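Researcher: Next sequence.
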Amino acid sequence: MGAPHKSSPKASAPDVPTNAQLASQATICPIYEPRERFGRIKNKALTEASGLVASDQNPDVLWSHNDSGAQAVVYAMTSHGKHLGAFQLFGVEAVDWEDIAIGPGPDLSKRYLYVGDIGDNRAKRDSIEVYRVIEPQVLPTQVVLPQILFGTERIALKYADGRARDAEALIVDPKTADLYIVTKPRTGSPVVYRAQATSNPNGPRILEAVATLRSLSTSSLLPPLVTAADISRDGRQILVRTYFHAYLYQCAKDASIADCFQQDPCQVPLLFEPQGEAIAFAADGSGYYTTSEGRLPSIHFFELQK
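Model: Next structure:
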């Protein structure tokens, strides 16, 4: 479970769509099917898995982290949940880590992990941060020992109007390295904000609103409390999840991410999870993973049907 002050809807009777209902979208939407008995997080230190992303350079490796109040540590595991290591970001303090992403950075030959310290349940923070660090190499056979990641870069962010907002979803444009944050409003519709990678090199990057996800407010009787997001490696698909629903935005070849969010999404499967706050595309595009906060939670995989 997350921090005591975190609010989430009651976990009773979610209006989860059936496979038959999802199949009716087949003319315009891809079909995903859940794999049974896929995996379980075996790392006892990872009890509040609030973010998830699949590695590009380390086959069959997922990255995750704990929620607010935890150490500045990212954890590596296999897609079936085997613990592969704890990596501390040197010189970083975690306030409210909510999501993790992967994307390009200053060295175009490297891949970078982006950790979103973007949570703000009471909307009181003057600024929020995203931490960027080169993704380390992880081997499935390595000895599991604590490691330290040096060279972490702090990217300060502020909303354009100066007001604070709560958010738990972060994606990185795979082409431009722009940052996108999706808010988690208690009322109204989630809003997508963009901070351009080239903006304000000497101060906080400014988050500008680029889309409002009104369809999430009308597609369910439950409030659209967005808890995670991810983008495919080619930038053509975006996943957004709430506690009980998952949505897929499909992008035209040359469309911007902002334009993509203007489209109506497909609703895709999501199994019940007590405190589901993580979703991630498989690196090869074969499906997506989800998991929940809690002790030794299940890892669910939804396979793309071809």
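Model: The chain has one domain: 19-304. DSSP finds three helices and 21 strands in the chain.
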